[in-house]
Amino acid sequence: MIDTKEASEKLVRGFLGSWRGRSLETICSAFADDAVYHNVPVDPITGISGIRAMFRAFLDAFSDVRLDIVTLVAEPARVLVERVDYFTMNDGRKVALPVTGVFEVKNGKITRFSDYFDLADFERQSGIEL
Predict the structure, then answer these.
(1) Which of 55, 68, 71, 81 is least surrounded by Cβ atoms within 10 Å, i.e. has the fewest?
(2) Does the pTM exceed 0.85?
C-alpha cells in the first residue's frame, strides 16, 4: 500500500474522530501491531497491547472525549496536527488541553504517534498523573 498524503490524512482524521464513538476496537484499529505511542513528557509505549491498555484507561477515566483539529498538515506517511483535546471527567470536571501530534504512517496504519503537550496542565486539570 502506498501511503499518499491523502490516505495518511484520512487515516489520522478517522482516528481522531473515532474517539467520539468510544469504541476501543475502532480507535486501536488505526495502529500497526508494533506501533509506538509517545506522550512526550512521559515514556513511550511500544506495541498495540500497551497502547490498547493506555487508551482503555483514558476511556475509563472520561465520560466524553472530543479531539478538535485546529491545523492539520499532511505529507505522504506523516501528519502533523495541532488540536485542542476536550475531556469530560466521570465526575463532571472539564479538561481542555492544547496538543500537537505527529503521526507516522506505513502501509495504511499508524506506526508512531507522538503527542506534545503541557503535562502539568493536564495533571492539574484532570487529577490524573501520567
Answers:
(1) 71
(2) yes
What distances in angstroms separate CA 102 from CA 7, 72, 91, 128, one per listed residue? 15, 10, 31, 23
* Cβ-proximal residues to 50 (8 Å cutoff; 6+ apart), any chain: 37
Phi, psi angle pair for 107, to nearest 5°:
55, 40
| H or E segment to which residue 25 belongs | helix 24-28
pLDDT tens by residue, 51-89 = 999 999 999 999 999 999 999 999 999 999 999 999 999
Q: Please write the tens of the pLDDT for every residue from 99-111.
A: 999 999 999 999 9
| Structural domains of the chain in order of their starting residue, each with its CATH number | 5-126 (3.10.450.50)
Query: How crowded is residue 23: how many other Cβ atoms within 10 Å of its Cβ?
Result: 12
